[in-house]
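Shipment paperwork, digital attachment
Item: protein structure file
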Amino acid sequence: AYASYTETFLSQTEQDINNNMLDPITGASREVGAKAELFDGRLVASVAYFDIEQTNVAKLDPQTAALGPDEQRFIGTDGIKSTGYEIELAGQIGDNTQVSFGVTDFDIKSDDPADKVVADYTPEQLVKLALTHSLASIPKLTIGASANYQSDIRREQGVLPSGEMIVTEQPAYTLINLMARYEINENVSISLNANNVTDEKYLNSLYWAQGYYGAPANYSA
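Attachment content:
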């Protein structure tokens, strides 16, 4: 079992209404968890719960919102808070199978509606699974598969002259990859890879106000 506590410190240049520099942004990260070896050390498992928060983040002072950029002033407010858990398994199952599994689930909250943007474009659930298996009948041949899942994300991009909100959405999706490797000898092997075999169409991220599509189905040797 373990526990950790970390504090962060970030200076900022924004000024308050009295022309004083705002105090630095401070953050705190807390985590508790446990790790264990299973099946005579062939499999390693871990579970963790984390809690992250920041304070004194600069926000525009409403009293100065109508002023020019050089005259606007700021106030310090609570920032983003995030809580969640993570589970990981990695190692060997049986004599010929290697596995790696991870799941992360977390929730982002803020008292400031503007920070809702961050919560929307950040997936709250991530699941990753990868398996490789060496065939007993063909010991030089290894086959494998992986699947990566993320929950839906969205972002409000602005307002049209009609008043309609522009919203970009990326539904939840799963990417599936396949591989095969054959060892010709101790120095040479041949590998075949198939990525995104279901040809999933998805946006990599909505962090910015523009997005890039992920690669379609593709293959390599």
